[in-house]
Specification:
73% helix; alpha+beta; 9 helices; 9% strand; two-stranded parallel sheet
């Protein structure tokens, strides 16, 4: 009887212990589910941070490429400026030498004029004028006549040679003056243009460096945020693991003492926790997949498609918009093309070469290469000219809608309006159709 009572008492105690253990296990399970939810949110934020880091890395790579292009353009322009300065110095030396030569020519002309004046004065003193017939008829003998004929012919020929020599020297002087002045003017214009381009490139260089500094700082901020989130996730993971361990220990401790319903309830609680964790992971995975898909679609939609004919020349340069730099004399070598370094005529020539055309690479040659048409009949693919630092100093390809694509000194390759602003003011009306 006593044994029976002890068994009943033990059973009661076990049931009591079981009833106290169930709330503890449920509380731990709820805490685990809460931590799992927090981890899911943190992992989503980690995915966002990783996406931002990758995006910043891509932007940094593009920016570094642009920095390299601008740096190369700056160096090339430095060489051009130095060469132009040397050419200007040489031309000025030529002008100085020419001035001395001019003075010598003028002195010789003055000397020849004095000889003619002296001869005229001598003629006047001997009777006001010289009648060559009288000289010839006044000869004393035939030999004297022949000698006088030779002397008169020599004098007349000498006078003629002096006059012709004066005229030749004057023409030579005028030709040299025009040639040297034109050369100096052209070099001076080129120097001004190169210095303006260099100023724009240096400004762009400074902008790129600032943008790079900002981007690197943002990258460091994203990486720090990611590291902080990963640390928080690691801490929560440790807590979650500890709670799971406690739940497991409680289950093992009470497994043989709790009734089957209590065991089932504990099992259900654990299953709900696992289900919540799986759902959170799927949500995080889905979020990452959506971001990846969005990035691919964005990249795909930005691609340009070129077609044949003149439209291929128009669209050929689209890939360089935002990825090029103006370089005086650029676009004529494989290295320049690979690095996006063009001047206006070099770009136009290269763009048309992509469509199968072989055309010159200078504005002076291009303006007379094709057929000139009126602006009222302009079509996409026609060449348009602008008076910048000189007449027809800039050229681009008309794309329609009052716009043209070209390599501008301020932007590199870009599509701009020619019906408003600066380009409207310098458009000279010249339209050439190839």
């Amino acid at each position: 009887m006593l044994k029976k009572k002890l068994v009943i008492l033990n059973t009661t105690l076990l049931l009591g212990l079981g009833s106290f253990s169930i709330p503890a296990i449920n509380a731990n399970a709820e805490t685990s589910a809460s931590i799992s939810s927090q981890r899911s949110d943190i992992q989503d934020k980690i995915s966002d941070a990783e996406y931002k880091i990758i995006e910043a890395q891509e932007k940094l790579a593009d920016l570094n490429a642009q920095i390299n292009r601008v740096d190369k353009a700056v160096e090339e322009n430095k060489k051009q400026i130095k060469q132009t300065e040397e050419d200007i110095k040489t031309t000025k030396e030529e002008i100085a030498s020419l001035k001395k030569e001019i003075k010598d020519l003028q002195d010789r002309i003055e000397q020849r004029n004095e000889i003619l004046k002296e001869r005229a004065r001598t003629y006047q003193e001997n009777g006001g004028s010289v009648d060559y017939i009288d000289v010839l008829l006044g000869s004393a003998s035939f030999k004297d006549f022949v000698d006088r004929v030779g002397a008169v012919a020599t004098i007349m020929e000498a006078d003629k040679d002096l006059i012709e020599s004066n005229e030749a020297d004057k023409k030579d002087l005028e030709t040299k003056q025009t040639s040297v002045e034109d050369k100096l003017s052209s070099l001076t214009d080129m120097q001004l243009d190169l210095k303006e381009m260099q100023k724009q490139n240096l400004d762009k260089q400074a902008e790129n460096e600032k943008a790079k500094t900002d981007l690197v700082a943002k990258q460091q901020e994203n990486e720090a945020a990611k590291a902080k989130l990963e640390k928080a996730d690691s801490s929560l993971a440790a807590k979650e693991e500890e709670i799971k361990k406690q739940i497991k220990e409680k289950k093992e401790e009470n497994l043989n003492n709790l009734i089957s319903t209590t065991t089932q309830a504990t099992s259900n609680s654990s299953s709900e926790s696992a289900s919540s964790n799986d759902s959170s992971k799927k949500s995080s995975s889905s979020s990452s997949v959506k971001k990846s898909t969005s990035a691919v679609k964005s990249s795909s939609s930005s691609e340009q498609k070129a077609t044949g004919g003149k439209s291929a020349a128009i669209t050929a340069g689209y890939k360089y918009i935002g990825n090029s730099t103006y370089k005086f004399g650029g676009g004529r070598t494989a290295s320049d093309v690979a690095n996006g370094l063009f001047d206006c005529s070099g770009f136009v020539s290269w763009a048309y070469s992509q469509a199968g055309y072989s055309i010159p690479a200078s504005t002076d040659a291009l303006k007379n290469y094709g057929k000139q048409v009126s602006f009222s009949s302009i079509q996409p693919g026609d060449l348009v000219f602008f008076d910048t630092y000189k007449k027809d100093g800039h050229v681009g390809i008309y794309v329609g809608g009052g716009k043209f694509i070209g390599s501008q000194s301020s932007t590199g390759v870009a599509v701009v309006s020619m019906t408003s602003g600066y380009w409207k003011g310098v458009f000279n009306g010249r339209v050439v159709r190839l």
